[in-house]
Amino acid sequence: MSIRDIAEAFAQLCKDGRHEEAGERFWAESVVSREAMEGPMAVITGRAAVKAKSDWWYANHTVHEVTTEGPFIHGDQFALRFSMDITARESGQRIRATEIGLYTVADGKVVEERFFY
Amino acid sequence: MSIRDIAEAFAQLCKDGRHEEAGERFWAESVVSREAMEGPMAVITGRAAVKAKSDWWYANHTVHEVTTEGPFIHGDQFALRFSMDITARESGQRIRATEIGLYTVADGKVVEERFFY
């Protein structure tokens, strides 16, 4: 699959609300997930740990709506723009936010995801 | 200036339609500008050459509207999303397109800009 094929397939799964399936299908075993924050969630390494982070996130947030725009491609990277309307379950705080996910692909898999906000 | 200060100032100049001033103020002498294409415009190195590329672009396109969203920040990088409504002067083709610019900052200056589309 070309970078465009991978980016389009990943984006389509996100557009269909199947973010977890996008990860399961495309994360490399050694994938690194980077958040723009300090603390234990800042850098998560390895497919199982990244899936656990994703599971934690879904368990702790109610998702009202997420829309995905993209992909935007350059070389071996693609970007997606997410607009989210969510509620953090513990605080009850409703959050509307937009962020950019930047994905680096090698050998047909996502080896790094980096989130900007 | 922090990365957030630089990103906010750069984004504000773009939002005000002052893209060239953003470059003049923040491009490092050694800035590298990368487009997601083949050919001579793919990688342009150095402030003077990047300015010449920018000047070429403005001379060859009529800008009806550009809107800038962001900044989205991660570490020493920030992203902006541009929605453009332009006409290519030579062909007369009107183009509405959205792209992501990813900027890498070092010592208070943009050392790389990379465009995704």
From TrEMBL, chains A, B:
Signal sequence interval, chain numbering: none
Protein name as annotated: SnoaL-like domain-containing protein
Top-level taxonomic group: Bacteria
Domain SnoaL-like: 1-117
Gene3D superfamilies documented for this protein: 3.10.450.50
Highest classification ranks of the organism: Bacteria, Pseudomonadati, Pseudomonadota, Alphaproteobacteria, Acetobacterales
A matching Pfam family: SnoaL_5
